[in-house]
Amino acid sequence: MNRSICVLPGDGIGPEVVSQSLKVLNAVADRFGHRFEYEEALIGGAAIDLTGDPLPQTTLDLCRKSDAVFLGAVGGPKWDQGNGPRPEAGLLGIRKELGLFANLRPVILHPQLSGGCPLKSERVAGGVDLLIVRELTGDVYFGEPAGRGCEQGLRTAFNNMIYREDEIERIARLAFKLAGERKGRVCSVDKANVLEVSRLWREVVIEVAADYPEVELSHLYIDNAAMQLILRPGEFDVILTGNLFGDILSDEAAVVSGSIGMLPSASLGEEHALYEPIHGSAPDIAGRDLANPMAAILSAAMLLRHSFGLEREARAVEQAVSAVLAAGFRTGDIMEPGMRRLSCSQTGELICRKINEQD
Ligand code: NAD
């Protein structure tokens, strides 16, 4: 298979974790006989420094003509001062421009890392392996009208929570399809006891469910979902939700996995897809070869699975990550007594070696 990947290293630890991920993709290419071509482009603070724009047109053009986009992280204190352009605007811009309507965040608690999970061990005894499917381009974040006003001499502000049925339907279909490839359960999260938007959400999700009889559908109100996620995280399979609720739930779920350095993500659209670790640019450890590259490497596995349909290759990467953990190797963020500490680049190299050693 010949495929092109647009690589956006970004800022801080972004370039460090991206370079380890490319090593791993190359190991996969060698092992399974594929050819991946990479072209690098600017985004975030690095792009502001060179062009004044966090998302230059040349970057967007390259993203559009590539088979997939792989991003490190953006941002840092250097660009936080003043009223100049912000690196994060590059991230929001790219999601919008590429029409990435679905954000997928798998949350896995590796048994070897259960010590890093803040929940009591009995709550995660059966393991955690859930997938959050969050709608990314609608909801109160983009609803119009939005703005400020004045009522009876008092400042007011308003946003519009709005979903069209086709927006709900396409994200629901994706969630049901993915659940069919996993444990076969979708839990749709809304606030249908209060919000009209949520009542439409629930109506459409139930209609879509009829096309997926093999998948079991349940519903939770967002407040209850937030509780259940920490009371019994192991019982979830796919959590389907809108943009606002998904924003909050996905960060809550991230804590369960023990370290932000372990969590990958995919943002999918009709024509394009972008893969990135969920962590930021970690300026506090940047440039010192200390970052955990596993979140980025697991994002590369998602790229192989969702953009290239290479399930066996994706699993090879995931198994190699598990094998490194099982062998007792850790980066600083997940270090525990008795384990052996590795740098970012050593971790990448070891994961490549594990891929080569697989039967
Ligand atoms: P952060 O995720 O960068 O860091 C939070 C903490 O986690 C830090 O202590 C950091 O050292 C640690 N950490 C993060 N990733 C790690 C890894 N792979 N290995 C080891 N430790 C890791 O979040 P922050 O400090 O709030 O933000 C820093 C910058 O990143 C800000 O400019 C912010 O806007 C930006 N940001 C970018 C993204 C993105 O690019 N998707 C996401 C979040 C934050």
Regions with little confidence, pLDDT below 50 for 5+ residues:
none
Give the helix proportion (percent range): 25-40%
| First and last CA, distance | 21 Å
Mean pLDDT: 96
Indicate the CATH class of the largest domain: Alpha Beta
**How many β-strands, per DSSP?**
14
Report the C-alpha radius of gyration, rounded.
21 Å
Strand composition percent: 15-25%
Largest sheet: 10 strands, mixed
Order of helices and strands: EHEHHEHEEEEHEHEHEHEEHHEEH
Rough outline: globular
Number of helices: 11
The kinds of small molecule bound in this structure are: nicotinamide-adenine-dinucleotide
Give the full name of the CATH homologous superfamily of the largest domain: Isopropylmalate Dehydrogenase
> Structural class, from secondary structure content?
alpha/beta
Q: What's the arrangement of strands in the largest beta sheet?
A: 2-1-3-12-11-4-5-10-8-9
Per CATH, what is the topology of the largest domain? Isopropylmalate Dehydrogenase
Number of structural domains: 2
Can you tell me the CATH architecture of the largest domain? 3-Layer(aba) Sandwich
Walk me through what this model shows:
It is built from eleven helices and 14 strands. The protein has a ten-stranded mixed β-sheet with strand order 2-1-3-12-11-4-5-10-8-9, sandwiched between helices. It has a two-stranded antiparallel ribbon with strand order 6-7. It has helices at 14-32, 44-51, 57-65, 88-97, 165-180, 196-209, 222-231, 243-256, 294-306, 311-326, 344-357, and strands at 2-10, 35-40, 68-73, 100-109, 128-135, 147-151, 154-158, 185-190, 216-221, 238-241, 264-269, 273-277, 329-330, 340-341. α9 packs antiparallel against α10. It folds into two domains: 1-100 and 269-359, Isopropylmalate Dehydrogenase (3-Layer(aba) Sandwich), CATH 3.40.718.10; 118-257, Isopropylmalate Dehydrogenase (3-Layer(aba) Sandwich), CATH 3.40.718.10. It is of the alpha/beta class. A hairpin with a 2-residue loop joins β6 and β7 (154-158). The structure holds nicotinamide-adenine-dinucleotide.
